[in-house]
UniProtKB/TrEMBL annotation:
Residues 14-128 form the Hemerythrin-like domain. This is Hemerythrin-like domain-containing protein. It comes from Asticcacaulis endophyticus. Residues 135-153 have a biased composition (Basic and acidic residues). Residues 120-160 are annotated as: Disordered.
Length: 160
């Protein structure tokens, strides 16, 4: 599914996450359509955004989900996928953006990332929404919005 429209309060965790996912979809499309020089610029923007998003999401949402026995396995699965995606980003950052290997790895990253966010939006978020209160979701939205800029400032393109 693409470009989902958030339907809840702007302070809601799921609204914030889906808004980021929509931004990431657009960045991935820009990378795919760009020439070599623009590709690097768009990829760097995506890498920082995706890493900051994942770290803030883990702190705001997954930490709460881990404490709920009905949601623990979904949270663990998503955290594992975040690590796989971050590893792919770091691997791509070390490659020549004009190479066939870069294009192949980017195609793999795009496929994996789109699969991940679709799974979150269609399976994980609805399951969490059923278990969590509106107040918890608002609190998590605030944590996410607070943490993401801090995580983005600490993020790197490629391995440290």
């Amino acid at each position: 599914m693409t470009n989902k429209t958030p339907t809840k309060s702007a302070l809601d965790i799921f609204t914030a996450l889906i808004a980021d996912h929509n931004k990431h979809r657009k960045l991935l499309d820009k990378i795919e359509a760009a020439d070599k020089d623009a590709r690097l610029e768009h990829f760097a923007a995506f890498a920082l955004e995706a890493k900051a998003h994942a770290a803030a999401e883990e702190q705001a949402l997954y930490s709460v989900m881990m404490a709920n026995p009905d949601l623990t396995s979904k949270a663990r699965h998503s955290v594992a996928e975040h690590k796989e995606i971050e590893d792919l980003i770091d691997e791509i950052a070390e490659l020549d953006a004009g190479s066939k290997k870069w294009s192949e790895k980017f195609a793999e990253l795009k496929h994996e990332y789109l699969h991940h966010i679709e799974e979150e939006e269609e399976e994980m978020f609805p399951a969490a929404d059923e278990e969590l209160t509106t107040s918890e979701e608002r609190d998590m939205g605030k944590v996410f919005k607070d943490r993401k800029p801090k995580e983005k400032a600490a993020a790197t393109v490629g391995e440290e």
